[in-house]
Amino acid sequence: MKQLVFLLLLICTTGLVQGRIRHYKWEVKYEYKSPDCTKKLSITINGRSPGPTIIAQQGDTIIVELTNSLGTENLAVHWHGIRQIGTPWSDGTEGITQCPILPGDTFTYRFVVDRPGTYMYHAHYGMQKLAGLYGSIRVSLPDGVSEPFFYDHDRSLILNDWYHKSTYEMAAGLSSIPFVWVGEPQSLLIQGRGWFNCSLLTSPSLEPGVCNATNPECSPYFLTVIPGKTYRLRLTSITSLSALSFQIEGHNMTVVETDGHYVKPFTVKNLFIYSGETYSVLVKADQDPTRNYWMETSVVSRKPTTPPGLAYLNYYPNHPHRQPPTSPPANPIWNDTEPRMNQSLAIKAREDYIHPPPITSDRVIVLLNTQNRVNGRVRWSVNNVSLTLPKTPYLIALKEARGDLHNFFDQNPPPERYNFAAYDIFSNATNHNATTSDAIYRLKFNTTVDIILQNANTMTVNNSETHPWHLHGHDFWVLGYGKGKFNINTDPARYNLVDPIMKNTVPVHPYGWTALRFVADNPGTWAFHCHIDSHFYMGMGVVFEEGIEMVGKLPSQIMGCGITKGFRRL
């Protein structure tokens, strides 16, 4: 086994993988869809939502020619989990690595998928992900190399939540005085399908047929299995707000991979999964083959008003639309944090696939997540600073700007700590005022950085939310989780430096902390943010810069905004 690990590392580091080029041509536009039986303008790729699954092998080059046919909206697409080594301009983060794709323009993303695993793509402009612009990326090992676990078939499932409001309406509410919250989603979708109770739509102004429970677009999704076979289910959460529990009636799930890294196997009945996370679970079709079974998602960590999402595990040769004879399984208690914390602590790197972290770090940045007000508007902040993005993307400004960078974004470094002694994370703060800034953290190249994410009370009494944080351009080691306030003097002694899992997205539990470590070894500018759309829209994120002088010549197609309006060349 160790020889296999060495071979894989040699392949990855010496470029011996001779990948293929996989070329896609996508048109992004609005179309009416009814994923939960209610008609809504959705963003589609070649007429589909979810969009096409990208299936590739490690070392392949992906080329996506993306045409923006939205008419009046800009566009950018992020390839979530792909590190973009050598291609930071293809990360797809508007305002950070590129100017947006203008209506009518075609933009070409080109990048290498350097690691096998389960990933995703989604819109990264405004709140467009909520409108349906997302899909799966599945990267397999090179020919002749096998996984450290056995399965007969490989399947992907996207888990999502769904709103009936337009992204414009929700974004306007979040920016308004008085503040208008987006509310809880109307439905949960499994592979783009859900069900909404049409009787709840009682407004006389609605046109006939807006909600149609017999629409085939919202018939339950089914996953067909052959009795006795073992299935690898690649689960991806692209929710806009909801933390989820996923379960399959009567079946155990063995967790074997997360975010492209092999997990020391453990078995669950319910898998808790947060926005931006991916998991591979093994499921054996070993139950009564004369019937079908429920697959179910439900909301946790927020008081659920959204009904569970339901689909069928279809045992062949039963009819795929044959409803299971039982009621759907009971859901976990939504505000019980203990099993969710226990799952987080159980996720460790698989033996023989452990990438040891550096024993110490060169820099420690502690980020306090709080809800605040800025000039009367409700915002989310990190160390009392709410992120805004500049008119000229950071990557372009740092590479192309001539003269004083003060003209492009704030050069005062953001705070790296908060007042540990004075701040009470369990109380509603007496002063909710914060500031906005487009300043970034400048990291010395190839240094080791620790990030401590600290949760606190929101502006609502006795309320602390779950925040899934996603780092672009890197994987990080998850060194530990804790309850209450992080103690910078004693808690590092509890870090797992033996077999920590590596991930790109991780939850911070209510009134808790999460400790991460990564090496700043990927030249570029990289977002690090809460993956809940409304929270990032309201400023819950930061940006890291590292090794900018090592970034190659920027392609002109990423320009066209801010100071680069005259830089764009054909």
Write the layout of secondary structure elements.
Layout: H1 2-14, E1 21-33, E2 40-45, E3 54-57, E4 61-68, E5 77-80, E6 106-112, E7 117-123, E8 134-140, E9 153-162, H2 167-174, E10 187-190, E11 222-225, E12 230-237, E13 243-248, E14 253-258, E15 261-268, E16 270-273, E17 278-284, E18 293-300, E19 309-315, H3 337-346, E20 363-374, E21 377-382, E22 385-387, H4 394-400, E23 435-437, E24 441-443, E25 448-454, E26 467-471, E27 476-483, E28 502-503, E29 505-508, E30 512-519, E31 524-530, H5 533-537, E32 541-546
Parallel strand pairs: 1-4, 3-8, 9-12, 11-19, 20-25, 22-23, 24-32
Antiparallel strand pairs: 1-2, 4-6, 5-7, 7-8, 9-10, 12-17, 13-16, 13-18, 14-15, 14-17, 18-19, 20-21, 25-30, 26-29, 26-31, 27-28, 27-30, 31-32
Observed structural traits:
5 helices; CuRO_3_AAO; Immunoglobulin-like; mainly beta; six-stranded mixed sheet; 570 residues; 35% strand; single chain; 32 strands; 2 domains
Could you write a compact summary of the structure shown?
The protein has 570 residues and is mainly β. It is 8% helix and 35% strand.
Structure report:
By secondary structure, the protein is mainly beta. It has two domains: 2-198 and 209-346, Immunoglobulin-like, CATH 2.60.40; 363-564, Cupredoxins -  blue copper proteins (Immunoglobulin-like, Sandwich), CATH 2.60.40. It is 8% helix and 35% strand. The chain is built from five helices and 32 strands. The strands form seven sheets. The chain has a six-stranded mixed beta sheet, with no helix packed on it. It has a six-stranded mixed beta sheet with strand order 21-20-25-30-27-28. Helix 4 (394-400) links the parallel strand 22 (385-387) and strand 23 (435-437). 50% of the residues are buried. The model is unreliable at 1-16 (pLDDT under 50).
